[in-house]
Amino acid sequence: MLHIVETPIRSACTDLLDRMHELRARVFHDRLQWNVSVQDGKEIDAFDAADPLYLLSVNEETGRLEGSVRLLPTTGPNMLRDVFSVLLPTGTTVESPIIWESSRFCIEPDMAHMGEGRIHKVTTELLSGLVEVGLLAGLSHIVSVYDARMSRIFKASDCKAEVIGMPTKIGRVLTYAGLFEISEAVRDRIASKGGITTPVLSPTGVKGLLAA
């Protein structure tokens, strides 16, 4: 089940958000060795202060946080515009109220006990959740900056991207900017690939999103 956390309820979700930032530190700093700032075991960047929406995958049986992803409108601060604009062709911008950016997609790295099936399930759950949020919010696309590792994950999950510009090596990794279509057909395709047969967003989160 995916929990939606937005600014109005952040104060009620501090423990869950702390675990998310700790997860991001383990994934992006410890495992992938990205050049990110970690303080007190938590990875937090400037875009966490830009009124994001978080999707958090929580195991319903154990209560354990198993994955997360962040969404930001492209009409405000976002990573593609403010950090990775080199990926865009000259003169190109991605800014629209119906295009949001996803970033900081991560899965708990200490999941050997869960098996490949569960890892794949969490991945497709998050991807399906992104599309479900997009449908509820009236989006046409989600844009994302991602590396070759995530490109392989997207392909394995039948999550197709329209690459913008030319992939560019940033640091040690080949980096892409891609647009992902939001539609019921896309949601159904990803869900089918992951064996998901019901909506993945928590009913409470859906109500909050519809009321926004």
The number of distinct β-strands equals 10
Distance between the termini: 21 Å
Radius of gyration: 16 Å
Task: Quote the beta fraction.
Answer: 25-35%
| H-E order | EHEEEEHEHEHEEEHH
Helix content: 25-40%
**What is the tally of helical segments?**
6
Q: What is the structural class?
A: alpha+beta
Largest sheet, if any? 8 strands, mixed
CATH fold descriptor: Aminopeptidase
Return the average pLDDT rounded to an integer: 91
Number of domains: 1
CATH class: Alpha Beta
CATH architecture: 3-Layer(aba) Sandwich
List low-pLDDT spans.
none
**CATH-level-4 superfamily name:** Gcn5-related N-acetyltransferase (GNAT)
Overall morphology: globular
Task: Summarize the model shown.
With 212 residues, the protein is an alpha+beta fold. The chain is built from six helices and ten strands, in the order E-H-E-E-E-E-H-E-H-E-H-E-E-E-H-H.
Name the descriptors:
10 strands; 212 residues; alpha+beta; Aminopeptidase; 8-stranded mixed sheet
Characterize the structure shown:
This protein is α+β, with helices and mostly antiparallel strands and 212 residues long. The chain has one domain: Aminopeptidase. 34% of the residues lie in helices and 25% in strands. It has helices at 14-31, 79-82, 115-137, 148-156, 184-193, 203-211, and strands at residues 2-5, 38-39, 42-43, 53-58, 65-73, 99-107, 141-147, 162-163, 168-170, 173-181. The strands form two sheets. Strands 1, 4, 5, 6, 7, 8, 9 and 10 form an eight-stranded mixed beta sheet that branches. β4 and β5 (65-73) form a beta hairpin. α3 runs antiparallel to α5 (184-193). It is globular and about 50 Å long.
